[in-house]
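Sequence, please.
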């Protein structure tokens, strides 16, 4: 795909109508299909959801692994991103036809019935191949632990960012002596910044692209700013909704003001990135847009979403390796899966070129990573991640986003009042908390989620 972010959003928009390609629901990429004909002693079947630039970066890392480990053949297969991928993976695990290694968004792991559809990692084997808990951000590692066992090995975090055009803003006083955007710490300062930026905005462009019509982006932005306010979702036992409607209203009013004051145009809600290339001063996008903007040779920067409520927090998800359940998991193939995952995690410099922040923290301190721009400007997001709650119905393209995202959009566009929307959101959270996970028939309170 020419534009990773756009393709992903198109998939999200049409999620209900997507079908899995081919009889097995995947198309092989790279040289992995040659594994069947190889004489190597061990073969590892690996399913992932990476296409476009991410797909090519993954292929490069897999080919490097193959070159260094000729005794292990990797048969890599790429499935359709989103619900088709998770449906296929669940069916394969339930039917004892699962691959040896897979990829999932970390937020979806809790809902995947760990212990039934996923097998835990052998941390001793991971350590044997150079990967251990101390190499990861503590909060990120904790998200991957369920009932005391590690069920996901994080590869990265991917975050929502505030992209800004340095060339457009350089005459506004909004670019500091360090060449970066002047920091803001309140909603007032942020809207003052937009007011100045609007003066430099060319006619026909909006001041900031916010994907105001997109339920996923609006939900991700809400999660970030609600976390900045210290908002919570449920109690520790997942038996009670603790969602704060007053804090939620503040966030909804903040998002709405961008449209009400004319900085974001609903009619341009789906072309934020394109307008940024054409000269819009700001756009809020996922870090996967870095290759697009860098490829266009823009003079730009990128920071985590502004801490307008006083606390640093930007929405983050994580691509993670998982072990789909196999009745007879073990032996050389299982060890090969551990070795492959550990290798990719440790050699994520290639992966960082796609804009993702490597989860393996030693990578972040290397000279090569520190030279990456604008990655070196937003790497701090690793330490202030705003995540969805750790419940079965959360995570990328999960039920929570599908149910709550459109409600947030209604407030941002002005078709519903923020206070009323906040109450509706709490009502949906209450319904979901009582709902049973179709994977195992358990509610959030009954399922294992304690780290």
């Amino acid at each position: 795909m020419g534009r990773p972010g756009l393709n992903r959003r198109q998939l999200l928009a049409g999620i209900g109508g997507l079908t899995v390609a081919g009889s097995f629901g995947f198309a092989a990429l790279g040289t992995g299909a040659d594994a069947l004909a190889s004489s190597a002693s061990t073969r590892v079947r690996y399913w992932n959801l990476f296409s476009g630039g991410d797909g090519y970066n993954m292929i490069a890392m897999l080919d490097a692994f193959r070159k260094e480990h000729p005794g292990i053949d990797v048969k890599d297969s790429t499935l359709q991103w989103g619900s088709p991928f998770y449906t296929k993976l669940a069916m394969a695990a339930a039917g004892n036809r699962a691959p040896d290694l897979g990829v999932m968004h970390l937020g979806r792991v809790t809902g995947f019935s760990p212990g039934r559809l996923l097998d835990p990692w052998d941390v001793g084997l991971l350590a044997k191949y150079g990967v251990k808990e101390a190499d990861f951000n503590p909060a990120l590692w904790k998200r991957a632990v369920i009932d005391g066992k590690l069920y996901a090995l994080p590869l990265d975090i991917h975050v929502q960012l505030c992209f800004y055009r340095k060339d457009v803003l350089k005459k506004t006083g909004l670019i500091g002596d360090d060449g970066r955007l002047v920091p803001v710490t309140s909603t007032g300062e942020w809207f003052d910044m937009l007011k100045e930026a609007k003066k430099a905005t060319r006619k026909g462009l909006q001041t900031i692209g916010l994907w105001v019509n997109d339920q996923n982006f609006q939900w991700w932005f809400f999660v970030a700013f609600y976390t900045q306010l210290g908002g919570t979702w449920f109690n520790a036992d997942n038996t009670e909704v603790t969602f704060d409607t007053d804090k939620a209203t503040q966030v909804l009013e903040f998002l709405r003001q961008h449209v009400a004051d004319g900085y974001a145009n609903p009619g341009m809600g789906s072309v934020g990135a394109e307008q940024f290339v054409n000269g819009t001063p700001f756009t809020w996008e996922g870090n996967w847009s870095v290759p697009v903007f860098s490829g266009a040779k823009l003079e730009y920067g990128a920071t985590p979403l502004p801490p307008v409520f006083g606390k640093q927090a930007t929405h983050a998800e994580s691509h993670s390796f998982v072990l789909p359940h196999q009745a007879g998991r073990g032996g050389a193939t299982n060890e090969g899966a551990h070795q492959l995952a550990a290798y990719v995690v440790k050699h994520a410099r290639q992966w960082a070129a796609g804009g993702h922040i490597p989860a393996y923290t030693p990578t972040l301190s290397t000279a090569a990573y520190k030279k990456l721009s604008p990655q070196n400007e937003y790497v701090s997001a690793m330490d202030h991640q705003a995540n969805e709650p750790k419940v079965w119905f959360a995570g990328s393209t999960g039920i929570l986003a599908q149910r709550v995202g459109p409600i947030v959009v209604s407030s941002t566009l002005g078709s519903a009042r923020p206070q009323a929307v906040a109450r509706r959101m709490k009502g949906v959270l209450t319904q979901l908390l009582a709902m049973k996970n179709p994977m195992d028939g358990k509610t959030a309170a009954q399922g294992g989620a304690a780290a």
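Residues 164 and 255 are 18 Å apart (CA to CA).
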